[in-house]
TrEMBL record:
InterPro entries: AraC-bd (IPR003313), Homeodomain-like_sf (IPR009057), HTH-like (IPR037923), HTH_AraC (IPR018060), HTH_AraC-typ_CS (IPR018062), Tscrpt_reg_AraC-type_HTH (IPR020449). It comes from Candidatus Eisenbergiella merdipullorum. This is AraC family transcriptional regulator. The lineage of its organism: Bacteria, Bacillati, Bacillota, Clostridia, Lachnospirales. GO terms for molecular function: DNA-binding transcription factor activity; sequence-specific DNA binding. PROSITE patterns: HTH_ARAC_FAMILY_1 (PS00041), HTH_ARAC_FAMILY_2 (PS01124).
Length: 291
């Protein structure tokens, strides 16, 4: 099923792509995309209604990017506006009507596979039918990438579609997580510090410098940093350094003294004691154990 419909005066535009033989198939693969696309309704006099009393064999996600639609969820009428996400599982009644009195845009994807239930459960998208994710441009961008893959069918297009679909689920899950934990926004100030620690782990900076980078007092920075990461800034940096040291021990022939200096310690004996404290073995023992 790969088609484009464009009724310029009537205002109905449909772009869709998918399996040319059966867009409602059930696959025994981990993930498989049956079809996807979008509907655009603009001042069309006829109300567009979808009624599937027995549902479909596959899953369906619908995202209302613009406008609104009437949905019947568990027999109850609901008006769902832009930013709404609807999930239909196999066999669930599907009954909805798109508003055509105002511009309405809805993106959708039909999918199947033995891993789908696990994927949805892991991302907290199983217990409900309707989710509010707000304006999420990434949703339409990813769907259109999937449409192009299904239309052109380049080498490994199925694998690419599956990857895009998992990205889509991840975007939805992250969006919902941010809504459920709005306080996470306050921790975004730590991102530059954490990136700096990973990038320049060998540089010895004071906690005051890190706090200033976040625009916080030293005490408040230490308190909030530990609340966010579970570790103090000092311990967090040591763990980064120890991870890097382990990598150097296993992937190079550098002596311990050079590795010590490379990860930010001028004293190899101090480095060795610290390494044993965090890993349970000395650098030389660690190398023997893993080689």
């Amino acid at each position: 099923m790969a088609y484009d419909i464009n009724i310029k005066d009537g205002g109905l535009h449909v772009v869709s792509s998918g399996d040319p033989f059966n867009s409602e198939r059930v696959s025994q693969e981990s993930i498989s995309i049956n079809s996807c696309g979008y509907n655009y309704f603009d001042h069309n006099e006829k109300r567009v209604t979808v009624l599937r009393p027995s549902g479909r064999l596959d899953y369906q996600l619908i995202y209302i990017q613009k406008g609104a639609a009437d949905f019947f969820i568990n027999g109850e009428p609901m008006v769902l506006e832009k930013g709404s996400l609807i999930l239909y599982k196999p066999g669930e009644t599907q009954h909805y009507s798109y508003y055509t009195s105002c511009p309405t845009v809805a993106y959708w994807v039909h999918f199947t596979g033995v891993f789908i239930e696990t994927l949805l459960r892991q991302n907290h998208l199983w217990d409900n039918c309707v989710y509010q994710i707000g304006e999420e441009p990434a949703f339409s961008d990813i769907i259109m990438k999937m449409v192009r893959e299904l239309q052109f069918r380049s080498y490994n297009y199925q694998l690419m579609c599956n990857a895009y679909f998992q990205e889509l689920i991840c975007v939805i899950s992250r969006t919902l997580h941010k809504q459920q934990a709005p306080s996470m926004a306050q921790y975004e100030a730590f991102i530059p510090v954490i990136e700096l620690m990973h990038r320049e782990y060998q540089v010895n900076r004071s906690v005051e410098e890190y706090a200033a980078l976040c625009g916080m007092s030293t005490y408040y920075f230490i308190h909030k940093f530990k609340e966010y990461t579970g570790s103090s800034p000092h311990t967090f940096l040591i763990r980064i350094r120890m991870d890097r040291a382990k990598n150097l021990l296993l992937s190079t022939n550098m002596p311990v003294s050079e590795i010590s200096f490379a990860v930010g310690y001028d004293n190899p004996l101090y480095f060795s004691r610290l390494f044993k404290k965090y890993t349970g073995s000395s650098p030389s023992e660690f190398k023997k154990l893993h080689n």
